[in-house]
Amino acid sequence: MPHADYACGSAAHAVSRRGFLATAGATAALGTAGFASPDSTAALARNQKRVLVVYLAGGVSQFETWDPKPGTDTGGPFRAISTSVPGTQICELLPHTAARMHRLAVVRSLNSTTPDHAQGERVMLTGRRPEAGIEYPHLGAVAAKMLGGERAEMPGHIHILPGGGGGRADATFLGPQFASVPVPDGRPPANLLRPSGLTADADRARDALRQSLTDRFSRSRRSAASEAYAASFAQAERVFNRADVFDVDRESLKTAERYGRHDFGRHLLLARRLLEAGVSYVKVSHSNYDTHHENFDFHIEQLGEFDRPFAALLDDLSDRGMLESTLVVVMSEMGRTPKINERFGRDHWSNGWSVVLGGAGIKGGAVVGRTNANGTTIADREVGPWHLFHTYLRAVGLDPERNFHPNQRPVPVADPRASAISEILA
Amino acid sequence: MPARPGPAAALLILLFAPAAVADEPLHARIDKLIAAGHPSHTKLAAPPADDGEFLRRATLDLTGTIPSSAEVTAFFADADPGKRTKTIDRLLAAPGYPRRMAQAFDVILMERRKDTRVPRAAWETYLRDTFTENRPYDAFAREILSADGTDAKTRPAAKFFLDRDGEPNLITRDLGRVFLGRNLGCAQCHDHPTVADYKQADYYGIQAFINRTFLFPNAQVPTAVIAEKADGEVIFTSVFDKSKKASATGPRMPGLKPLDEPKAEKGKEYAVAPAKDVRPVPTYSRRERLAAAVTSPENPVFARTAVNRLWALVLGRGLIDPVDQDHADNPPSHPELLDLLAREFVAREYDVKWLVREIALTRAYQRSSEVPAALTDVPPDRYLVGPLKPLAAEQLAYALSEATGNTSADAKAAPLVAAFRGVYGGAAGEPDDGTTQTLSQTLFLKNGPVVRGLTQPKAGNLADRLGKLPPDRAADELFLSVLTRRPTADEKTDVTAALTRTPAADRPAFCGELVWALVTSAEFRFNH
Q1: What is the pTM of this model?
Q2: Residue of B420, B423, B494, B506 to mutate, interface with A, max A Cβ within 10 Å
Q3: How close B358 gets to chain A, by Cα (Å)?
Q4: What is the C-alpha to C-alpha distance for residues A365 and A53, in angstroms, rounded to an integer?
Q5: How confident is the model at residue A165 (pLDDT cuts 50, 70, 90)?
Q6: What is the ipTM of this complex?
């Protein structure tokens, strides 16, 4: 592969044409001039707010997690245990989380109105009731736009999920630059790495030519679209330069152990690395809680996987001084029925279940709302996904009453008929 | 010309088209109205595009790809002063024209929704046939709005309904957006909060055409067809109305009178009565009246919306912008021009190819997209410079194949087009203006195997051919093939020098990288 020494030589020449096909070294110097240094990135990261959503896919049971009802007809076989917050008990399947309950707030009176996987997820993540004629952006896209913006160093909306797939229309009118970048199975984004056979020098050389042509074109035809196009290559370069962020093997063995040597542990550890690198919103999906059969066995298994890494993550965020700036949310698309069916399962349920929040802007140890003695109905302070959506935004210092302006018409960021759950805001 | 337009349209033509100017071709009249839209238009407007800029632009707009280097060379060498018109006519007669129009109208009508009940291949064939035959646009719209999916021959036209699951709110909204230039989605639950013209009653007037329509046997079946009941009224209440006053409406186009509807005789409501596993057929069908109501000359927004969308397709921006926001507070940039286009389109019996040709012949379309140095303020709706448009997913796929010398028959191009649709297609059901660039798109270009497979040398492709040419000729061929222009002196010097210094064995791979740099430049990404 040719490199380095096929330049035209003259320094003046190189500068006047922005180093088009100039030596790789010179190009690299020009290319990095506009990037933030690692130091300033770190400073930025400390002040910047971020959001982590741990999404227990399939619909986690509130009975086996945050709202146990031991000894009732609906309660199931598990005990409730004390937590680090006097008077607050959670299910015995979460001992590590229980010891960190002072960092978390529980909302136990959620009526999400939609006991369905796809629709429930949409309602929970958009904070909106379905409306014909408009698709609302998901929380991740909203956070990416409002916390990170167009020029963010890293993509602002990342979804770590087990298996393949991912990549969906979750940014709607905010535009595809805020749509989730899927990280299936914790692998880095597709096509992040240089193809084999292309050396770093050759890559820089070809990129210098691309850049020079783009510059020449943009001089007389500048537009928002052409600028966005040019900027996207710089962003790809920055993400490539930080490809190591996606590599959880760089963590110590001890850290890896604390998070657990399984997919969810690795994914949560990756989420921490991404948040540290300045990503505005990370969603980690943990599958699968859709326990129509054998609800109790499955929750032992699933929560056994969830509990330790989640506690480790809270510790790490706290130790790094990042918990004050990172909102952590544990949610699902719905909860599960009080009634235990004949297959020892629990079915879909939206009328009275729990969501947990912690970190930025959240009053640790708070408990809001109550279900009745056996969890069959909401007894106090009913809230909906719309109230939660307001709360998430307030917690990270955003104004949910602002408007977006798709097609020049105002669309409130959060449902104007709702407001934040002030009792859990710090 | 047969007197097919209704009496109202005929009257309009008589009133507004004096014989003297009627002889002047439409493109000249368009340019006059564009010039009149800015106080110093003639002084400030950019000069005509140069040959390369023109040829690339017209080829992309009219056939959805870029010209081959042979076509570029031949065009440059042609001394005929009428060569641009000749080229436009050649492109409009080429098979690329119906393909390009089919791609554009697929997106306009379906907005990248999933193919559920009408397979892609059948739909594309239907669209291509439509534009190959240059079927009148009103007839095309009537097919889309009336096909019920029961006849295999016309089933593809029913895709608009079928692949929207027959969902009445979705169809009401999209029908309004696509054919009537109105996004009434916000008027479903109340009068539009910010657009005074968009009334809830208009929304439900459209919905009343289809409120009895459903998918038979049900929406879960991929072979479902459209069926209709004989009864069902549309009643609506504004969520803002505290008194909860219910209103009723029959089928009605926005702003027009409700249809006169026959009263079905008791007991004779059905030609085929509903029964288990039987598709009912009502004696009187509301849905059957939809196509005629939408395309009626008494519904002038139909032609107005059609010409505005065709204008936007070619010029990159509608005279009404966005194209689905036609209302009093968002007037057209050139109201007289829009009226003229709509009138002439109707007079020409909704001849799409004729209108596209006239628009392509305008000076407004053929202007350079380079902003003249003296021009500091470039209002996008004054057409002072040529349009700058991101290539659609399909254009990008075809242009990349052509540029890199990997052309193949359309059938073989399908997987490549599908790959580009996957990365560049945008969100299903969302209008996509292609003005943003995602990380996954950029990584797809930078490192993805699809683009690398096209750019790196393979027997007979561009990188392979360049590797065998003397360096200076390779530089020319590279720029002509990819960017439809010759390299500047500097570009030629640099590329020639770089190639000369590259050992012969490395040259083909290096040529692949040069091709990559050109196809990923903004100059390639945009139609300019």
Answers
A1: 0.80
A2: B494
A3: 25
A4: 19
A5: low
A6: 0.90
